[in-house]
Structures are given as structure tokens and as C-alpha cells.
Specification:
- The structure holds three protein chains of three kinds.
- Chain A is an all-alpha fold.
- Chain A has two domains: 82 residues, no CATH class; 287 residues, no CATH class.
- Chain A has 13 helices and no strands.
- In chain A, helix 8 packs antiparallel against helix 12.
- The longest helix of chain A is centred in the N-terminal third of the chain and has 38 residues.
- By secondary structure, chain B is mostly helical.
- Chain B has a two-stranded antiparallel sheet with strand order 1-2.
- Chain B is globular.
- In chain C, 68% of the residues lie in helices and 0% in strands.
- Chain C contains six helices and no strands.
- The longest helix of chain C is centred in the middle third of the chain and has 26 residues.
- The chains are: A mainly alpha, B mainly alpha, C mainly alpha.
- Chains B and C meet through helix 2, helix 5, helix 6, helix 7 and helix 9 of B and helix 4 and helix 6 of C.
């Protein structure tokens, strides 16, 4: 960011007198604002799509009144959330009740910073990118626990505890399932991971096709990550039929909106990470986006990245409306008895593969056989 | 010269044997249906025995540095590995006889016991503060679990809880000391730390670091004022665990104390074996620590009504005696510590063994319940008397010889007051040890039923009494081994 | 010298210390835990300032994501919510304060008066690769020993949480037939 600021200061004479750190700070604020706008829009449109998908799967129509095809429904919902009365239960712990949604939202939104949206489109390409995402996710857990406790409500507390136990448990398979991508790229930076997948024809370089173990890891990651973000069929923290709505049951209005946005934010982060780590990130199939002029390359890669990520989000929604919910103990067993051992075996497999074939994937091996 | 990771493996077989046994125990535990079978005990006996044999094959002498400088392979480490492995074997045998542990799940118990043993092996050899800290925790954390192994019993849970809280505090303070040392020298290797400290003139931080590190080690050897945990833990923990804690981790604590201070604070040409930094009067500090430890231990022991608690305070006092050998940091003094540890191993484990056998019959550890033991279980009573007199340090028994060596070094170096304090303390200790003997032989039994002592414990007791007696008259080979083992790896 | 980076540093340091003091003094243990969250986050921030990026993320992951959550869980599970007696009372106020002040005096005097050998010129280089390499070479043995330690701790945790008695391998986690 600072390097970019320096080049900007030297390139544009009008701001030559401004101190470097001011420019850097402004750029940071600007990129945060862009990301925030994206997250909000995604949350809004996502909720509309979610309801449409639900409608299709359950053979009903879904939102259809506000705007053409009900497209503006999310604006109406947003306005409603903003204007609603902000209720804090009398017996709630006011301070924590107010603090909790911010923590959850910050934890979810902070992950956006490192996502590789395009060839050069990353707010901050931290060299510990993936690890950073795992770390900030833990803020979400604290926020959820806090919300559950502060509400002074049995369902909220139960939901909060379930959520925390679930997120903590599934952090392990998620981390282990993503490791193969890190191993292949030799870096934790998400941009490096994406760049490492630029091989053959832009599609066979994908980690998904690198070797059988990475193929498997993608599905392991996707399953575990879905659980880590409390998506159905792993949504016991908010299981409507048992806990009404879980940890956020006492929240309304704008505070509820934070939880809601965080949920959609998590959904996108999961999809984006899966894309970046296994589906080639912003790499365009059969085409090199890096070769284009900066502007067009970035735009094209951004579009490709978003298409891939949105496709995964759609899959998540599809799963959400088709599978029944797991029971608490089944959920824990799934993580500790199946996913954790499987991801470990898988990681071992990938490591062995990299060792034996000197880091080459199946497509590269075939290519070298052919000539 | 540091050996690399792979080349080091062939000198690491004892540790590997223990680790393999731990993993086997885990696998056996998962596979078996019967939680109370004797298989885990036998398996660990075999594992520790094998490891003891492998320790015997290790080369002693001045030694080499293994695993890129993480642990040392020298006579000192080999000595302590053999010592702790031996203690563990006795404790495993004890645990098989203990009624307290009969209806508990067996495999986990031995997993923890062997983890502590692995920690002690590494602690005795650690030459890097990262390694040192980790092995200290490997000794501590399973010990907490062992202390609280009798889950249903409030005392056991209390013991575990107190142990955890004190242990965490002690390690926290110790880590702070390490951080100061790292800050002063920029390295984690204790040999390099010693060299780095010699270059600078930073007395205050060095003193603070040494004091803080002593908290961590003092907690392991239960030296006053870091002893608060030990009476409650010793009383609440299952008796075999108490016996183990009073010998194994204490010996390992002494090992690391000696190695750390010897490497960092002693002059490199330690023929005279003096403290390197004269800005602080180290001998006086440790002499006071030693005197206070033995005095507090002995004075508080007088009023104890519970045998385990009494032995706990007595073991604090013995830590004080052993610290006498440490005061001047001379090879002769260290030799005395090593010799005393051997003697202490037999007599203390023996005393606890009898406590277990009596408790199996009477379900009590109160001294008053030992009345008339001389007629109810003459063999056990005589054995216990031998161990208690040896602990006092009365002539024909081995404890006497151990004390002679400790006293000799202090007197030779002119710290007469410490010798006087120690002698007075021995007199005090005679009072409370002899009281138990009096209760056993001179008071009438409350019940007249004979306490049966089965054949296996009888044989084990013989095996423990024998060295206690023999080392009192013929100690030459052991003191020679101890003298050979003071050859620490120099950097 | 006092650029914006320094200001941020002082802010983060103050946040760390202030929340650490709150952890010790707040009467409600839940609030203490929340203050601990900010203290941990502050420490992570300080790590960033000394270019320890990997360590900073680890700090958040382990302390916030693990230890803090464990503390919260322990509090939630060991108290009934209806009777809020979740307290963290302070005993021996002035004695402890005196002792702490004395210790603080000594330690801070030591820290200030000592000339620690400091590496000149802090470079903001990535540290992950180096840490990984050290863990696999020089610090391999501690790394492996840590795994034995964790195994023992894991078994211990399972042992402590397992119900006593005959139904040890209880059927409550099994599938209903």
C-alpha cells in the first residue's frame, strides 16, 4: 500500500506536497470503503437470491412485489431494518449486548482485506493471508458467545455455546484442508496461491486438478467451511425449530443487520477462499488476464473471480435448502471423527505427492509425457 | 559441535522407547474393552525396562550436543535418566499393588506416568531454554493429572487444582526470567547465554533472571518458599503418585537446576567450580535457601498427623539438604547431590511403599493407625523403620553416608554455619521419624488382625531395603559413578 | 520522530496495558474476559510493530480463538445464569497493590536501565518461511516434544471430562438404534 502511495505521489503532481502517510491512510480508508460497499451489496443481493433459490427449490415464487421480479426487495428489507425500533432487553447486559454485533461483523469483514479479487486487486496482500483469515475468524466466535450470554436468554446462550463449539471444532479441518494449496504455492499469501495456479491453459493449473488429494481437499474444505460458518445443514446454533433463532434471537433492527451481514460476509469469504485456493482464483480459463493492460486485466480477472465465487455461493444455498440439519452430537462427531482424520491423511497424501513428483501436478506430468 | 537431527537419533533410543510405549498404551487402550486389566502396567514396565537398558548402552563422559544443541548427551544426563527410569519402575510396581488405583482406568495412568518420565529424561539433558521449558511442562502437566487421578475424592481434586495454579505461576515467572536472559544475549542456547553474560556487565537483570529461573526450578524440587503446593498435593494425590513426585520430578528438578546454573554461571574451567559472576554473593543466597528449606520442612513436619503429609514435609527438608551440595557449585558438591539422590530414591520410595501396603489394609494414612504395626505386620514395620532411620541419617544406614558427603563439602569450603543448621535439623528430624517407629512398636494395636503383605510387595520391599542397608556400608561404586557423572557437557 | 506510526504504537500499547489492568480489577469475570480480548488483540498489534506477522496472527488464533473462548465456556458452564454470582472479587487489596508496585518498579527499572543488545534497523520482512524452517531444523526436537505433551494433555482432558462409574463408555454419544 505504501509503495503504491509513493508511486501515486510521484506520478500526480497535484498531491506532491501531501505527506506520504496521509496518502497511504486515505487509500486504506478508500479500499476499506469499497470493500464495505461490496460486502453490504453482497449481503443485500445475497439475501434476495437466497430467498429466490429457496422459493425455486420449494416450488414457490419467493419475493416478487418490490421492483421487477422483486429485485428491490433487499432495499425494502434494509430500510425496514434501519427504521425498526432498537430493542435491548431489560435484563440484558447492555455493554456486551451492544459490543457483540460489532465484533462479529468486524471478524467477518476483516477477512475481506486479503481476498485476491483480481490480478492486482487485493486491499492488502499479507504474506500470511490464509492464516490471517483463520485468525480473524476467531473474533466471530467471541462475538457470538458474547451475544448469546449478554441477551440473558436461554436460547441465545445455547445457540451461542453451540456456535462457539462448532466454529472452534471446524477450524481444524478447515485449516488442514486448505493447507495443500499452501503447500503447493509455498506461501500463505492468497495472491501467491492464486498465481501458482496459472499453469496449462488456465484451467489445468487449478489446484483442484493438481492431484487426487487436492481434488478431495476441495470438498473437505467446502464441507468443513460450511460448518464453520454455521450454514445449513450445520446450522444447529440457530436451529429455528429448537432455538428459535439462536444467539441473535434478542437482536432487532440495525444490530440484527450486523449479524445478518456477517453471515453473508462469511458465506462469501468461504466461497472466495475456495475459489482462490482450489479453483484458480482470478485465472481466466484458456486466457492470460495478466497479459492484458492493467485496467482490462484487472476487470476481467475480477469478473472471473466473482463468477467462480458466486457459483460456489449458489451451491451453498442449494445445499442449504435441500439437506436436513444434523444433530449436535452428529455434528461434533462429523468434525472430530471424520473430517479431522480425513484432512490429516489428505495433507499427508499431498505432501507425499509433492515429494515424489517434485511438486508437479497430474496435468503437468501428462504434459511432460506428451512432450 | 552439534550433532544434526538425524545423526542424533541413535543416541536417543531410550526416549524413543518411552514414546513408543506411550503410543502403544494409547493404541491398547483404544482397542481393549477392559479398563482395569494389568496389561498397561506390564507394558509400561517392559517399556521403561527396555529404556533403562538402552540408557545403560549410552556413552557417558564429557559428551556431545544432540539435536542441533537442544539436548546434551553426557554422563550427567545418563545418570539422571537411569535414576528416573529406576524410580519409575518402582512406582509402576507400587501402582500395581495400590488399592486406591485398582478401580480406576489403568491405561491413562501409565500414559501420564511415562510422559512425565519422558519429560524428566529431556529435562535432565536440556541445553536450550525452549527445550528446557517444554520438558518442564512435559513433567508438570501430566503430573497435575496424576495428582488428580482419584476423581471422586475431593482431596485429590484439590491437590490437582493447587498443583496447576502453583505450577502455572512458577512457569510464568520462570519464562519471564528466560526472556530477560534472551534479551541480554539474543540466544536460547544456555551455553551461549553463559558466554554472552560473561561479556556484559548487566548485574541487575542477570540477578533478576537467575532469581526468576530459580522460582521455576525451586517449585519442581519443592524448595521453600516455593513449596506451598507440596503438602497438599502429596496428601491428596494417590500414594504411588506422591512417591513418584517426591523422587522423580524432584531429581529432574535438581538435574536442570545444576545443569542450568553450572553452564550459565560457573567458570568454564570449573576445576575449582566457582561462581562466575562475583557481583552477587550466590553462595550465600543458595546457602540461605538451603537452610530455610530444611528448617521449614523439618519444623512443620513435627506436628503432622498424616504420614503422607509428614513425608511431604520431610521431602522438603531433604531438598534443603541436597541444596547444600549446590551452594558452592563445585564438582565435589554436585557429586554429593547425585549420591544423595540415589540413596534418597531407595529410602523414600521404600517408605511410601510401606504406606501403600498399610493403607491397602487399614484404609488410613493417619499415624495413629500405625499403632502396633510391629505385631500386625512385622515385616512392613521393620522395613519402614529402616527407611525412616535412613531418612534421618543414622550411621549404619545409607542416608548417613549421603549426608556425610553433603556436610563434608560445605565444611571443607568453610560454610560452617550451614553445616551447623543442617546438623540441628537432622536432630529435629529424628524426633518425628522416631515417633512413627515408636507408634509402630511401642503402642498397643487398635485391632489385632494381622495385616497380610503378599509375596510380590514383600520382594519389592526387600529390593528397596537391600540398597538402603548396603549403601550404608559399601558405597564406593556408587560414589564413583556419581563422580564420573558430574562431567557435564561444557560449551 | 513522532510520526503516525508512533502514535498508533502508543495507542496499541496503552490499550494493552489498560485492558490488562481491567482484567485484574473488574469485579465481573465476564467483563474481565472481554478486557482480556482487547489485551490479547493489543499484544498482537505490538507483534506487528516488531515485524512478527506470523506471531501476531498466531496470538489472535491461539489466545482469542482458543484460550479466551475456553475461559468464556468455563464461566458459562460452571454458573447458573439465573443467579448471576459471576464474580471476581479482590482480596488483600493494598498488600497486593504494594507488592505489584514494587515488582513493577524493579522490572521497569531493569528494562529501562539495561542496555539490551538491539538489532539495528528493523526490517519488515516476512517471517513465516524462516519460522517454518527453524521448526523443521533447529527446533525440531521441541516441536516433536510439544506433540507428546499435547497428546498427554488431550488424553487428560478426555479423562477428566469422562463420567465416572460403570457407564464409562457411555452410550449417550452413540446412534440411537
Amino acid at each position: 500500500m505504501e509503495a503504491l502511495a509513493r508511486s501515486l505521489v510521484s506520478a500526480v503532481p497535484a498531491i506532491a506536497g501531501v505527506p506520504l502517510w496521509t496518502v497511504t491512510l486515505l487509500m486504506m480508508v478508500l479500499s476499506a470503503a469499497v470493500l464495505l460497499a461490496f460486502a453490504l451489496t453482497f449481503g443485500g443481493l445475497g439475501s434476495y437470491v437466497l430467498r429466490k433459490v429457496a422459493g425455486d427449490i420449494q416450488v414457490r415464487i419467493g419475493p416478487n412485489r418490490v421492483g421487477p421480479y422483486g429485485l428491490l426487495q433487499f432495499l425494502a428489507d434494509g430500510a425496514k431494518l434501519l427504521l425498526k425500533e432498537d430493542i435491548i432487553p431489560a435484563k440484558a447486559d447492555r455493554f456486551l449486548f451492544i459490543l457483540a454485533p460489532y465484533l462479529v461483523f468486524v471478524g467477518s469483514f476483516a477477512a475481506f482485506v486479503v481476498l485476491p479479487f483480481g490480478v492486482g486487486l487485493t486491499a492488502s496482500d499479507l504474506n500470511i493471508g490464509v492464516y490471517y483469515v483463520m485468525a480473524v475468524t476467531s473474533l466471530v466466535v467471541v462475538g457470538i458467545l458474547m451475544a448469546g450470554w449478554a441477551s440473558n436468554n436461554k436460547w441465545a446462550l445455547l445457540g451461542g455455546m453451540r456456535a462457539a463449539a462448532q466454529i472452534v471444532s471446524y477450524e481444524i479441518p478447515v485449516g488442514m484442508a486448505i493447507m495443500p494449496a499452501v503447500l503447493i504455492a509455498g506461501s500463505l499469501s492468497l495472491q501467491d496461491i492464486v498465481r501458482s495456479q496459472g499453469g496449462l491453459l488456465g484451467i489445468f493449473g487449478w489446484n483442484l486438478f493438481h492431484n487426487p488429494f487436492t481434488f478431495f481437499s476441495f470438498f473437505l474444505y467446502f464441507t468443513a467451511a460450511q460448518a464453520e460458518t454455521n450454514q445449513t445443514p450445520f446450522d444447529i446454533p440457530e436451529a429455528e425449530s429448537e432455538l428459535v433463532s439462536g444467539y441473535n434471537v434478542e437482536y432487532s433492527g440495525i444490530r440484527y443487520a450486523f449479524f445478518f451481514l456477517a453471515e453473508f460476509g462469511d458465506m462469501f469469504v468461504v466461497a472466495a477462499l475456495a475459489t482462490a485456493c482450489f479453483l484458480g482464483g482470478w485465472h481466466v480459463p484458456f486466457f492470460r488476464a495478466e497479459a492484458l493492460p492493467a485496467l482490462w486485466g484487472n476487470l476481467l480477472s475480477l469478473a472471473v473471480f466473482l463468477i467462480k465465487a458466486f457459483a460456489l455461493v449458489l451451491v451453498m444455498m442449494w445445499v442449504r435448502w435441500t439437506l436436513p440439519r444434523l444433530r449436535v452430537d452428529q455434528l461434533m462427531r462429523m468434525s472430530w471423527k471424520y473430517l479431522v482424520p480425513l484432512t490429516f491423511v489428505n495433507l499427508l497424501g499431498v505432501s507425499l505427492w509433492l515429494l515424489i513428483f517434485k511438486g508437479k501436478g497430474i496435468p503437468a506430468l501428462i504434459a511432460s509425457l506428451i512432450g | 559441535m552439534f550433532l544434526g537431527n538425524l545423526e542424533s537419533l541413535k543416541y536417543f533410543l531410550p526416549e524413543l522407547a518411552i514414546t513408543a510405549t506411550i503410543l502403544l498404551l494409547v493404541a491398547a487402550h483404544v482397542a481393549s474393552k477392559n479398563r482395569r486389566s494389568a496389561a498397561p502396567a506390564l507394558l509400561s514396565l517392559a517399556g521403561v525396562g527396555a529404556s533403562l537398558l538402552l540408557v545403560g548402552l549410552l556413552p557417558g563422559g564429557p559428551g556431545t550436543s544432540l539435536f542441533e544443541g537442544m539436548v546434551a548427551l553426557d554422563g550427567f544426563a545418563v545418570f539422571f535418566k537411569a535414576l528416573t527410569a529406576l524410580a519409575t519402575i518402582v512406582v509402576v510396581a507400587m501402582s500395581m499393588d495400590s488399592a486406591e488405583l485398582k478401580d480406576k482406568s489403568q491405561a491413562e495412568y501409565y500414559i501420564f506416568l511415562l510422559s512425565v518420565l519422558l519429560g524428566m529424561f529431556l529435562l535432565a539433558a536440556a541445553t536450550d531454554i525452549v527445550m528446557l521449558y517444554l520438558s518442564l511442562e512435559l513433567v508438570s502437566i501430566p503430573s497435575y493429572l496424576l495428582a488428580g487421578y482419584l476423581k471422586g475424592r475431593a482431596r485429590s481434586t484439590e491437590a490437582s487444582m493447587k498443583y496447576v495454579v502453583y505450577g502455572a505461576t512458577a512457569s510464568g515467572v520462570m519464562i519471564y526470567g528466560f526472556s530477560l536472559l534472551f534479551g541480554l544475549t539474543g540466544t536460547t542456547h544456555i551455553g551461549e547465554i553463559g558466554r554472552g553474560l560473561a561479556l556484559g556487565k548487566a548485574t541487575l537483570p542477570m540477578f533478576l533472571a537467575a532469581a526468576m529461573v530459580t522460582v521455576g526450578f525451586g517449585y519442581k524440587i519443592a524448595a521453600v518458599p516455593f513449596h506451598m503446593w507440596s503438602p497438599d498435593v502429596y496428601e491428596g494425590a494417590p500414594t504411588p503418585v506422591t512417591a513418584f513426585l517426591s523422587v522423580g520430578p524432584k531429581a529432574a528438578g535438581f538435574a536442570v537446576l545444576v545443569r542450568f546454573f553450572y553452564t550459565v554461571f560457573a567458570t568454564p574451567d570449573a576445576a575449582a567450580g566457582m561462581w562466575k559472576f562475583s557481583s552477587v554473593d550466590w553462595p550465600l543466597l543458595f546457602a540461605v535457601l538451603s537452610a530455610v528449606t530444611m528448617t521449614v520442612g523439618n519444623l512443620v513436619a513435627i506436628n503432622q498427623k498424616n504420614v503422607k503429609r509428614l513425608l511431604a514435609y520431610s521431602s522438603i527438608a531433604h531438598a534443603g539438604y541436597m541444596l547444600m551440595g549446590f551452594v558452592l557449585l563445585t564438582p565435589v558438591g554436585l557429586r554429593a547431590i547425585l549420591f544423595y539422590l540415589v540413596v534418597y530414591l531407595f529410602m523414600n520410595l521404600g517408605a511410601f511403599y510401606v504406606v501403600i501396603l498399610v493403607a491397602n489394609g487399614t484404609r488410613s494414612e493417619e499415624i495413629s493407625d500405625y499403632s502396633g504395626l510391629g505385631s500386625r505386620a512385622p515385616f512392613a514395620a521393620v522395613a519402614l523403620s529402616v527407611f525412616l532411620f535412613a531418612l534421618t541419617g543414622i550411621p549404619p544406614f545409607s542416608g548417613f553416608i549421603g549426608k556425610v558427603y553433603l556436610f563434608a563439602e560445605v565444611i571443607n569450603r568453610g560454610v560452617y554455619w550451614l553445616a551447623v543448621v543442617a546438623a540441628l535439623n537432622s536432630v529435629v528430624s529424628l524426633y518425628y521419624y522416631a515417633r512413627i517407629v515408636k507408634v509402630m512398636f511401642l503402642e498397643d494395636p487398635r485391632e489385632s488382625a494381622v495385616l497380610p503383605v503378599p509375596a510380590f510387595p514383600r520382594a519389592m520391599l526387600c529390593l528397596l531395603v537391600l540398597p538402603t542397608l548396603v549403601l550404608g556400608v559399601y558405597w564406593e561404586p556408587v560414589i564413583r559413578v556419581a563422580a564420573d557423572s558430574v562431567k557435564l557437557l561444557a560449551f | 520522530m513522532t510520526g503516525p506510526a508512533d502514535l498508533i504504537f502508543y495507542f496499541v500499547a496503552a490499550l494493552t496495558v489498560a485492558s490488562a489492568i481491567l482484567v485484574a480489577t473488574l469485579p465481573n469475570i465476564i467483563y474481565s474476559a472481554v478486557a482480556l480480548l482487547f489485551s490479547f488483540a493489543g499484544v498482537a498489534g505490538l507483534y506487528v510493530f516488531v515485524s512478527a506477522d506470523f506471531l501476531a496472527a498466531t496470538q489472535v488464533l491461539v489466545y482469542v480463538g482458543g484460550i479466551l473462548i475456553l475461559i468464556l465456556f468455563a464461566v458459562f458452564l460452571s454458573n447458573r445464569i439465573s443467579t448471576v454470582k459471576i464474580s471476581n472479587p479482590v482480596h488483600f487489596n493494598w498488600q497486593a497493590a504494594l507488592l505489584c508496585l514494587a515488582l513493577f518498579g524493579v522490572l521497569s527499572y531493569t528494562a529501562v536501565s539495561t542496555k539490551f543488545p538491539v538489532k539495528p534497523g528493523l526490517s519488515y520482512q516476512p517471517t513465516t518461511a524462516e519460522i517454518g524452517e527453524l521448526l523443521m531444523t533447529r527446533y525440531l526436537l521441541p516441536f516433536e516434544v510439544a506433540s507428546v505433551l499435547l497428546l498427554a494433555a488431550l488424553i487428560g482432558a478426555a479423562l477428566l471430562s469422562r463420567p465416572e462409574g460403570e457407564k464409562e463408555r457411555s452410550a449417550d454419544m452413540e446412534e440411537p438404534k
